[in-house]
Amino acid sequence: MFLDCRDLTFGYQGTTKTLFKNLSFKFENPGFHSLFGSSGVGKSSLARILCGLLRADKGVVDTDSIDSLLYAHNLERLPGWSSIGAHIERITPIHNQDKKELLIRHFGLSTHLGKRFSQLSLGQKNRINLLRYLVQDFNVLIVDECLANVDEKLRARILINIKAMFKDRLFIYISHNVIEIASYCQQIWVLRGPERDQQAVLVRGQDCRDQKCLDRSSLQQTMLEIMNAA
Amino acid sequence: MFLDCRDLTFGYQGTTKTLFKNLSFKFENPGFHSLFGSSGVGKSSLARILCGLLRADKGVVDTDSIDSLLYAHNLERLPGWSSIGAHIERITPIHNQDKKELLIRHFGLSTHLGKRFSQLSLGQKNRINLLRYLVQDFNVLIVDECLANVDEKLRARILINIKAMFKDRLFIYISHNVIEIASYCQQIWVLRGPERDQQAVLVRGQDCRDQKCLDRSSLQQTMLEIMNAA
Amino acid sequence: MLLRRIYQFLMIYLIGLAILLMIKYVVNLSDYVIPSLGILLNTFGGISSTYAHDVFSTLCVAIIGQIFSIMLAFVVGILGRKTTWLGSLIKVAAYNIQAYPIVALAPIIFILLGDGFVSRLLIAAMICYFPLLLSVVGILAEPITEVEHFYQQTGRMRWQLEVKIRSFENLPKLTTVIAGSATLAMAGTIVAEFIAANAGIGYSIRIALYQSDLSKILVALFMIGITLSIYQGALEIAGRLVKSAWEQ
Amino acid sequence: MLLRRIYQFLMIYLIGLAILLMIKYVVNLSDYVIPSLGILLNTFGGISSTYAHDVFSTLCVAIIGQIFSIMLAFVVGILGRKTTWLGSLIKVAAYNIQAYPIVALAPIIFILLGDGFVSRLLIAAMICYFPLLLSVVGILAEPITEVEHFYQQTGRMRWQLEVKIRSFENLPKLTTVIAGSATLAMAGTIVAEFIAANAGIGYSIRIALYQSDLSKILVALFMIGITLSIYQGALEIAGRLVKSAWEQ
Amino acid sequence: AQENLTYRLKWLINMSTVGDIVAVHQGCFLEQGLTVTLKSGGPERDAIRDLELGHADFGVASGDQVIQAISKGSPVVVVAQLFQKNPLQWVYFKNKIRIDGLTDLKNKTIGVTFGKNDEIIMRTLLVKSGLSERQVRLYSVRLDYTPFYKGVADLWPVYINTQGVEIGHKLMASGASIAFLDPESHGVLFVANSVVTSKRLLEEHPERVHRFIKGLIKGWTTAVEGTDTDRIVDDVRRYDRDTSRDLLFAQLDQTRALVKPGKTVSIGRINVPAWEQTEAIMLANQQIDRPVNVGTRLRLEFVE
Ligand SMILES: Nc1ncnc2c1ncn2[C@@H]1O[C@H](COP(=O)(O)OP(=O)(O)OP(=O)(O)O)[C@@H](O)[C@H]1O
Ligand SMILES: Nc1ncnc2c1ncn2[C@@H]1O[C@H](COP(=O)(O)OP(=O)(O)OP(=O)(O)O)[C@@H](O)[C@H]1O
Ligand SMILES: [Mg+2]
Ligand SMILES: [Mg+2]
Fold first, then answer.
1. Which of B167, D180, E99, E175 is an S-S bond match for C134, by CB 3.0 to 4.6 Å?
2. Where are the alpha helices (DSSP H) in chain D?
3. What backbone phi and psi angles, to 5 degrees, belong to C94?
4. pLDDT digits (tens, 9 = 90+) for C85-103
5. What is the ipTM score, two decimals?
6. Does B38 sit within 8 Å of A176, measured CB to CB?
7. Is the torsion defined by CA of E288, E290, E295, E299 positive or negative?
8. Exposed (0-12), middle (13-18) or buried (19+): which is E228, by Cβ within 10 Å?
């Protein structure tokens, strides 16, 4: 399984600026990968192109090896007519019920299932939204700042658990937290804007599977690479 | 100028859980302070109480020394009928026009002023929203995850500039980024939930004024203190 | 709530009446043009029980008509919500029919359906349904992307779900319109009775008009107003119950 | 767009006509119950130009009435948007008046205002304004907290701004309702003419009814429909222009 | 100098108001120094109200309206009576039913407009016929004629000089034959269109009333006796564009017979016994609760 994009060119209609110009990158195998770049560089736009919500002006998105690609972002809301527990219950396929239970525990949401979406804190909203994507059947999941408002401790726990539970899936994790990306991601594509001659640079991350794997200096090294690339 | 809360008790109507029970804390002087705590502990609720959107069941919020307290959070939207540049222009008092120009530059928004709010990236939305509060006349500003979706480099620059420009104001910065809080904040109140016997613990931060001030080991120390308190 | 509605209505009615009487005495008009308070009270005593009965029978038709038109508005709203050719055809049809004043359509309706209960109902429903339709179309045609995104992504979106999401997000607007359309259902039924029927308050108003008897008309307006205040109050309470049941 | 509206209208009209004629031949009704196609075409040739002129004069009144009622709906919507006592009194008044079928109010209107242009306009506006009012009240009463928060916090909130924010966020709904209410303004004007005026298509319909001439009524319906399709199409285009001007 | 007057009619401006139209358009009022504006009427606007409100100076009202208004204290006076015969009659299919005497109404379905004067007239006819109300079926009339056409109702009320002509024409064209039931031939007199004004105008400006009536009677005389019928019909067509010329000629003939039923009758004459009978009928039907002595409001001096 891979996700290959070649020569993407794109600019929003009505604006003169091109966002991507012949952008090419490739996520080569399942695992926890990342799209990184400064605010406004085009990560969310790229994600929208990948999942088909936007169409590139030019170029190819090769998704032949992928059955189902989902895009989760952090402005989503759950419907308000039932509790989040009831909602999750309804949208989980039967064969994923076990996963659901486990995830609810890992995500620290057990005591909040009776609440409506509007009664949650921001970080709780973030978590429940990501959770409902994880219990779907997918090959590729783009996670666009879905945990931006969750505290770091919990976020680390969540990432580690996701990595353990979904080894065969391809994640594209979009976040501004450099340490996190350097620690947990494998292939990190850093976007740099169309004015730079190499628009996307690949950095290899530490791809940690638990909280203790961290070798301080190599992490430092990766972080530097990322920051320099961006 | 100070912000003093004594014996706050609060729980959302229709829920049984009390969020705060005789919570007391005090921000003692102008500067860049923080409210910290894990997701769902009640930071945003507390902010809503401080600015009067919610009413505590019991307790006193002493704001006698404060003329104007504003609360900015990250779900806000700007009206869509004009460009963000025009909006900012309209809502900036004349005597703050210079500040406005400076802030737009520091916030990296100069090239986006012609856009509508809906055409911005998430981080750009975050920034323009915070900016419009900063150009108001305020004594206290609560910043509730307003920069959560901005990249770290830019965020650091923004914080340093805010601290330099608004020395006489009191900021309460809510964020999940521990390094950032440890580095830039002065008084850090860590919320821990009503089941712990000391509901809020005060940690002194590094209160850096530029990017180079960091003394690695004392920062590490502060971070540990914060993490242990939470 | 309900009580407030009633006494607010009374206030408005009395203000209106006072203005009429003032004109009467200032311009010095005879009882034929504007009845005196004495005549009015007299008429009230004489016919209030008959009229109460009439208004009740009208209200029953109005309620059925309203239910009918709520359903119709949703059906058309659901079908017309898409910007497809068929959707817009249905909308054009629904809009056009409304442009025809009922006075012009009535003969055709009577030819097709006779002048029994069904015609009355149809006319009532037609007058009441259009405002509903407008709101329902407006609401159902507008995507709520933040909520719908997930269902679109996971291929779960069905029209029922779409309708449910959009209705829920616009619940306050919908209940305003539905409660408000009660008055229209009532007005519609009265018009239908006025044109065709031989029962109901509309029929009584017609007779009063032929007899040039303004005092009867004023009594009728009073009865209609008070009944409607109660009905609308009840609808609002029901709306609040639905809302809290759905949201809690 | 405009063209599509017109030929969709034609389609609907022809379907309706076909049904009527079918009934005529199936039940074997005479020409005076339902006119034959020949009579209809004949009538059309004879009176279409007069009727076209009538419809145009009606349309002019309708447009003024619609503008008037849009303004009225906004005024009442703005005043009635708060949940204060006065707000709810205004809403009750605005709702109650609507419950009275125009036929019952007409005599009072004529007593108060005479039977000139003003009364006609008032009746037209009353019929058209209520659906507008319902939507406008629904829209203006619902806070858009994410946008309004800043203005509340900084003490900048004025009612004008509140109205602007809520209107803007509900622009598609508002334009749907305003475009749709054109049909109601037309219907209202026709009813007013039917009751009171001595010009316009409503007056012609009354005469046709008086003469029991269904073929003339069918021609009138045709004229009304086609005019309205054009007017509504124009309104929709205007709505789109406003939207793009405001949003871009 | 010309004086401006407003003249409110009872119903639409059509052949029933031919004399009024002629008076306006053939200069009869101008000769009297009056400029008269015609206003059509309808169920929601009656002339007597307009007189009181000052919206009109003269008006046309039916006998029952006048009596009703007097009973409620309206200062209205009658200065002329336009129709000597009430135009209201009942149409029926001759090949379907046969009405020779009033008793033939037995078991028939009769259209009446509840609340309007045709209801009272029919009830009076029924009283005269000796039939009880249970022996006929009264059917509520609405705007269109479909129930009659479809045979749901046997008799249907029409104004003989306008609707009667149109419907008769239509039905004749399709081979049906119709007849009319005329209440007057069964002894029921019920006054129709009459000219009214307010007491005040009469007292303050009797000469103005005089001139108005003079002009009006001249108009009606021209309409009824004039030979230039083309011009008369053309004048009516200014208002009633939708009725064909042929029909208008037929309507004119019918109207003439109502306004001047016999050689000896002068146009505009107030038929006092008819008014008294009208009052009696209304009293009997509890339309008014006590006698109003309508005779005191009839001003016979304007029409010789
Ligand atoms: N609908 C739109 N129309 C025009 N320009 C747009 C639109 N949406 C986004 N943009 C612009 O495109 C650029 C990229 O936006 P995008 O949301 O993809 O950035 P991002 O990398 O996700 O940023 P962030 O980290 O802040 O979320 C931004 O400069 C933004 O202003
Ligand atoms: N309207 C509400 N009704 C009931 N409970 C609520 C409501 N809003 C928030 N809560 C609950 O109150 C608790 C505190 O919420 P709050 O938003 O203050 O948390 P927070 O500290 O800001 O968290 P985060 O960092 O995730 O934003 C949460 O458990 C949340 O579920
Ligand atoms: Mg983004
Ligand atoms: Mg929060």
1. D180
2. 2-27, 37-80, 85-99, 102-113, 117-140, 145-153, 159-169, 171-195, 200-210, 214-247
3. -65, -35
4. 777 777 777 766 666 666 6
5. 0.80
6. no
7. negative
8. exposed
For D176-192, how does the pLDDT look when each residue is reduced to its tens digit (9 = 90+)?
Answer: 788 778 877 887 788 77
CATH of D2-247, one of 3.90.1180.10, 1.25.40.10, 3.90.79.10, 1.10.3720.10: 1.10.3720.10
Tokens of E24: 């306006």
pLDDT tens digits, chain B, 230 residues: what are they? 889 999 999 999 888 888 999 999 999 889 999 999 999 999 999 999 999 999 999 999 988 888 899 999 999 999 989 999 999 999 999 999 999 999 999 999 999 999 999 999 999 999 999 999 999 999 999 999 999 999 999 999 999 999 999 999 999 999 999 999 999 999 999 999 888 888 899 999 999 888 777 778 888 899 999 988 88
Contact D197, D121 (CB under 8 A): no
Residue spans per domain, chain D:
2-247
Full-prediction pTM beyond 0.90? no
Classify residue A193 by its DSSP letter: -
Q: In terms of DSSP H, where are the helices of C81-115? A: 85-99, 102-113
The CB density around residue E39, as the number of other CB atoms within 10 Å, is 18
SS3 D229: helix
* Helices (runs of H) and strands (runs of E) counted in chain E: 12, 10
Q: What is the pLDDT of residue C102?
A: 67
* Residue identifier of the C-alpha nearest atom 18 of ligand 1: A42
Ligand 2 pocket, Cβ-based, cut-off 6 angstroms? A 112, 115, 119-124, 149; B 12, 15, 19, 37, 39-45
Contact assessment for residue D51 and residue D58, using Cβ atoms and an 8 Å cutoff:
no
CB-based touch D/E (3+ pairs, under 8 A): yes
What's the CATH superfamily of B2-229?
P-loop containing nucleotide triphosphate hydrolases (3.40.50.300)
- One-letter amino acid of A187: Q
So where are chain B's domains?
2-229
Among E10, E49, E76, E112, pick the best mutation site for testing chain C contact (most C Cβ within 10 A): E49
Among protein residues, the one whose CA lies closest to atom 2 of ligand 1? B119
Contact E115 C106 (CB under 8 A): no
3-state secondary structure of E7: strand
HEC string of C130-181 equals HHHHHHHHHHHCCCCHHHHHHHHHCCCCCHHHHHHHHHHHCHHHHHHHHHHH
Q: CB distance from B140 to chain A under 8 Å?
A: no
Cα distances (angstroms) measured from residue A83 to each of A72, A89, A94, A117, E231 = 20, 10, 19, 7, 83
Could you tell me the pLDDT band of residue A131, with boundaries at 50, 70 and 90?
A: very high
The finding on whether A106 has its CB within 6 A of some atom of ligand 1 is no
